[in-house]
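Case study.
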Amino acid sequence: MSIKSSFLLGGTFLVFSFYWFTDFHRAPIYYIPKPHYKLPVNPQKNDTVQLGRMLFYDNILSANNEVSCASCHNSYNAFAHTDHELSHGIYDSTGNRNAPALFNLAWQKEFMWDGAVHHIEAQALAPLHDPRELGSSIEELLIKLKSSSFYRTQFFKVFGDSIINSKRILKSLSAFELSLVSFNSKYDRIKQGQEVFTEQEKQGYLLFQNHCNRCHTEPLFSNFEYLDNGLPIDPFLQDYGRFLITNVENDKFKFKVPSLRNLSYTFPYMHDGRFDKLRKVLAHYGDIDVHSRVTDVKSIPLSFNEQSDLISFLLTLNDESFVFNKEHAFPNRLKEELIKK
Amino acid sequence: MKLYFLLIFLLLSFVQKAQVQIEFCLFSDSVIHTPFKINETDSLTKFKFYISHLEVKGENKHVSEKQHYLLDFHENGSASRIISLNNVDTSSILEIEFLLGVDHKTCNEGIGEGALDPINGMYWTWQSGYINFKMEGVSDNSTAKQNKFQLHLGGFRKPYSSTQKINLTLEKETSEIKICFDLNKFLNGVNLKNQHTIMSPSKESVSLSKLAKTCFYVN
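After joint prediction, the assembly is written out as follows.
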């Protein structure tokens, strides 16, 4: 090989490796697919993420300054909510859906149980304006933030000037949300060759692959499609899921397939929180009424022992380090600011 | 090398380019009072819409603008809004084209700034996406409470994509284009008995957006 061509080769290699290191769409682990949204780089030191984290925890987002995003999305529950089946917002109001867990959001394109929100940046506008959630508005929030010297300083730190606008608020919030990445469960360590399944977990994994993986697809444990898993409709809520967005008859009873990671922390389950135990979920999958409508899954009857095996596998998807990650909890900077007041 | 760039720069700056003014208006009367009376039975309390991808076309050349403009006909109480395009060869403009609404790509990109900031009240919060066209008012024909009507047209996801492309030909070459929206034609085409409240992407939203498309004309 001539000197010239080896320089060329070396140069190309350098360019490619540079590209690889700066490719923010790169997944954190080799078996994880590319995320749909860019992952924030170095979240602990990333000012945008940290600003978003403060906004996420700050009651300033609600009309009466008593509710925050974290009121419904608790870090110790993988950012789901466990006290209520249906979400519990401002002035003790009740919504009509269960607050979902928030993690690995960068791999989802659309949000909400019915996909009502098409972009992560737009998502926060929904709870902000919902009279049963934060009961406020982006206009009101802008006025509050602009009159806070604390936030003016924080915005200056991130954006280099003290302009506070909707885009910046929403970008920061979504940066924090995108930083919530959970791939450190026993399942992941097994994938990486660091641990092995117990015999029972292995049996459960086989059952999972046969019956559940089609929708709760590895390694994110969702295919993020809208499907009907056969839940009978709640006559009080009358929630038709995806149909509310598309108006297409065929979309009735369809909801976004949720991830099965961190299930130990995210109960109650389903869009309306109707099941508080995994046994009850499996009992439902064992007894799906296929006579009243065409569902996307038929009954999956499992013996009591098979259920135990399947559950023992599902528990390997818990990521304790995610749930107890201090970097996701109430930010100290905000705590100090609130004490000062 | 530097000299070369300088030469190009000088050449470019000598080519005669001027400004084109595009005026959007409701009627020829340019004063508007809130609530704006259209006729004996109808009045408006809010009327705004997005215009984007303005394109003026000449014989061979055309100039296009990716920018989004929010035309709010109650701001300052004036019934006309002027958009200026700079650096346009004005000698042979024969055609003007624009989108009524926000383009699909911009919708998919998330939240915008300026005209596209959600504080402008042109963003749906419960089901995300821009409202392309917002008209609110009072009409004897409306069967809603207090005879109000609220038409929020928008949506970009299939099958309810409602952004419209509008193409108008100019009768004579001009650098001052005046485009009007025929309010009477629009309101006559809406069945306010059943269609008084449209607040989400839907069949009605698409069909009324198509109606709005036909209401623009060159004055």
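Observations recorded in class. Chain A has a mean pLDDT of 89. The CA atoms of residues 233 and 239 of chain A lie 7 Å apart. We will return to this complex in the next lecture.
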